[in-house]
Amino acid sequence: MVSPQVLRVASALLALVTSSIALGVAPGQIKNFVTFGDSYTDSSYYPSADGGYQWPTWAAEYGPFNLYGLARSGATCSNLLTYRPFPPIMEWQIPAYLNETYNGTLALNPQETIYTIWIGTNDLGVSALLTGSDTPGVSIVPVRQCAVDVLKRLYESGARNFIMQSIIPLDLTILYSSNSYPSRYWTAQRNTTEWSVFMRELVRAGNQITLLELEALAPTLPGAHIASFDSYGFFTDVYNHPGNYLNGTAPLNVTGCINSCVYALNESTSDPGDCTVAEGSAQDSFMWYDELHFSQQTARVLAREIATVMSGQFSPWATWLS
Questions:
Q1: Where are the beta strands (DSSP E) in the chain?
Q2: How far apart are CA 121 and CA 112, in angstroms?
Q3: CA 223 to each of CA 22, 58, 321: distance values in angstroms, whole numbers, following the listed order
């Protein structure tokens, strides 16, 4: 006869195993993925902001998955928080997705579909939080709450599988580094060291706020599977260990870029600038395509990791919260 104590232990172990199995999507479950975000994810045009195919195009091939790209270059989470004249997630991308869903143009099985959300670069950057050109009273807190609200709105519409990608270490981009120069993105006077330090703090705080919000939210959404993808850690590792990721024919380069355009102080960005462009296979030696965007090679290795997550396999950069 089995004692009650043994039964309780066995029951507890079974509950732990069952809970562990329930985390994340199952191998082979996902057939489709829908993207929301900015130029880091926008696959709607070619060449994209990285000079070639953006990472979702590669991830769709690696899966294989069916890609439905709603991300648009220049976007913020909400123009009510940080305004830019581009299609934001809340006021354009989600309505576009819901319109196609409700009118039957887009019919996706929620169990076979995963949604990626990667936003924040433009919210935190120039003409937004970094330079103070935002709606009065707006801070990093509501900006990152907005990203979590995107997930909640999609869940309410029937979506069940999600990947929330954290903000990359923007202080490692050329635009926001302490050694930055006037570029196509900003030619006005600035203290580059101050910018770099401020951006580093914005990113770290924003990512922590998002993670805490997600950890609190996950248990309240029955049937949802939410992964937190550590883009910050991934890009930091590419920067620190480029030999594990870059494979071009030129010396590996994480501080310069493929398409570099230097401007004079206060020069109009309608001018061509003094540009240097790496060609051919040398491009795969670079982490960055230009002063703000990552390269094709970085996009490919990022796509490989996210495709791994969507396939229900282990990635060191993803943590399933539910």
A1: 32-37, 66-69, 113-118, 161-165, 225-229, 253-257, 259-262, 274-277, 286-288, 318-320
A2: 29
A3: 9, 28, 12
27-232+295-320 is a CATH 3.40.50.1470 domain:
no
Kindly list the domain boundaries of the chain, sorted by start residue: 27-232+295-320
As a whole number of angstroms, the distance between CA 36 and CA 119 comes to 8
CB neighbour list of residue 62: distance below 8 Å, 6 or more residues apart: 303, 304, 307
Confidence at residue 5, expressed as pLDDT on a 0 to 100 scale: 52
Whole-angstrom distance, CA of residue 174 vs CA of residue 288 = 8
Residue 231 tokens read as 């883009």
pLDDT tens for each residue of 194-228: 999 999 999 999 999 999 999 999 999 999 999 99
Query: 22: pLDDT confidence band, cut at 50, 70 and 90?
Result: low
pLDDT in tens, 56-77: 999 999 999 999 999 999 999 9
- Nearest to residue 235, comparing CAs of 315, 172, 282, 314? 172
Confidence (pTM): 0.92
Q: What CA–CA distance (Å, rounded) separates 49 from 69?
A: 15
> Do residues 207 and 167 make contact, with C-beta atoms less than 8 angstroms apart?
yes
Q: What is the mean pLDDT of residues 171-180?
A: 98
Residue for token digits 């030619």? 187
Residue 207 sits at the vertex; the CA angle it makes with 236 and 322, to the nearest 5 degrees, is 105
Q: How far is CA 222 from CA 22, 53, 148, 160, 162, in A?
A: 12, 35, 16, 9, 13
Mean pLDDT calculated for residue range 299-316: 98
In angstroms, the CA 299 to CA 287 distance is: 9
> Which residue type occupies 74?
G
Q: Do residues 263 and 187 lie in contact, with contact meaning Cβ atoms separated by under 8 Å?
A: yes
Q: 309-322: buried (b, 16+ CB within 10 Å) or exposed (e) per residue?
A: bbbeeebebbbbbb
* DSSP-derived secondary structure for 87-105: --IIIIIHHHHHHHHHTTS
